[in-house]
Amino acid sequence: MRIGVDIDGVVSDSYPSWLDELNRHFGKNITVIDDYDMHLVFDVPREDMNNFFVGNAERLLTMPKPVSGAKEGLEALLREGHELIYVTARTIEEKDVTLRWLTMSGIPHEHVLFTGFKSKVDAVKEWGIEVFIEDYHVNAKLIAESGVPVLLLDTSYNQKELSKGISRCHSWDDILVGIKGIQSQGNANCKTI
Question: Are residues 83 and 101 in the same domain?
Fold first, then answer.
């Protein structure tokens, strides 16, 4: 199968690192990111949040560790013959630092697509992606509505009601179970048996 994989929050454990940096920068003591729109969590203008990320992109994109189980899960998918297509909302200007982080972290990668602020749905359709692994509920909903099943990695900021075609997974082990379910039965049940 051709599997679409998001990077931040799915492969890169970005948000815990970013939380510490954002608290320092904005003088806050936020303990949980409970909204994907972090400017709302930190109660700052969107422009201030964007400026922080643009001004610190190199450091912010290289400091996170991989999500627990991501490297092993991705390697297992490749061994099983699946093709991985990373589709990230990062911009093309962040390509070099992103590829460097993937290599440095030992994350297998061949195809990495940078959508920036555009919808991931176009990339999903263009590349014939058959299942997508995501953490942002809005992207998950749009991708699922396009007919592609989505495995949503559980996070503090995606605790919304799930739309049809989206299965919540609590770990990379669950994601592997979900992929097997889609392959064999056409339905993703992320619950480990």
Answer: yes
Q: Does 190 fall in a domain?
A: no
Q: Is residue 6 part of a domain?
A: yes
Q: How far apart are CA 66 and CA 7, in angstroms?
A: 9
Does residue 103 share a domain with residue 53?
no
Alpha-carbon distance of 175 to 191, in angstroms, equals: 9
Contact 42, 19 (CB under 8 A): no
For β-strands 150-153 and 166-169, DSSP reports them as parallel
Same structural domain for residues 76 and 110? yes
Q: What is the pLDDT along the chain (193 residues), one digit of tens a residue?
A: 999 999 999 999 999 999 999 999 999 999 999 988 999 999 999 999 999 999 999 999 999 999 999 999 999 999 999 999 999 999 999 999 999 999 999 999 999 999 988 899 999 999 999 999 999 999 999 999 999 999 999 999 999 899 899 999 999 999 999 999 998 876 666 654 3
C-beta separation of 155 from 168 below 8 A: no
Are residues 31 and 95 both part of a single domain?
no
Find all residues with CB under 8 Å of 149, minimum gap 6, and list them.
130, 131, 132, 165, 166, 167, 182, 188
Task: Return the DSSP state at 45.
Answer: -
d(CA 85, CA 78): 11
For residue 150, give the DSSP letter. E
